[in-house]
Amino acid sequence: MIDELLADAAERMTKAVEQTSGELATVRTGRASPNLLDRVVVDYHGVPTALRQLAQIGAPEARLLTVQPYDPSSIKQIEKAISDGDLGVTPSNDGKTIRLGIPEMTEERRKEMVKVARKIGEEGRIRVRNVRRDLLSDLRTYKTDGDVGADDEHRAEAELQKVTDAAIATLDAQLKVKEADILEV
Question: What mean pLDDT do residues 112-121 have?
Fold first, then answer.
């Protein structure tokens, strides 16, 4: 029973780390990355739709992103959504493709992006700690119900702390890499 709880906690923590990694990928760095547009939502015929579902996104050069809509009639809505997305880029289109020149980030903008990345990292740590809290609560319930002995509970808590520490260390390493990537000139 305890092994199942620990396996479930490890799986949930891994998912929290993966979710945080995905969110960190959307934070702008000095280079063009298709992930930069992951948070852009387009009003497509009255339905909020992720840009990835409406267009092919590419990075042909280090400072250029291209967005090629599957439906050419949606180019204006896509352009508006990118402009409204607070990405610090100005879209231009030729009727078929939207081009986004990624400007060099200023030192101030880099520091802002590092703050955003740190906030995302802290949210990831909170998700991991919430999983730990839930499992500790379950363990205490099993102990009070008599399903688990005190020694088993302490061993499970120690094992859970190891899993938690590993997940948080992974998050911290990812955040450190992202910060270095953002601050790289």
Answer: 91
Q: What are phi and psi of 106, to 5 degrees?
A: -80, 165
pLDDT in tens, 138-179: 989 988 888 888 888 899 999 999 999 999 999 999 999 999
> What confidence category does residue 33 fall into, taking pLDDT thresholds of 50, 70 and 90?
confident
pTM of the full predicted structure? Answer: 0.74
Question: Does an H or E element contain 55, and which?
Answer: strand 55-61
> Nearest Cα to 109, choosing from 127, 88, 93?
88
Give yes or no for a contact between 182 and 113, defined as CB atoms under 8 angstroms apart: yes
Assign 101 to helix, strand or coil: strand
Q: CB of 118 within 8 A of CB of 175? A: yes
Instruction: In whole angstroms, give the CA distance from residue 181 to residue 156.
Output: 38
88 exposed, middle or buried (CB, 10 Å; 0-12, 13-18, 19+)?
A: middle
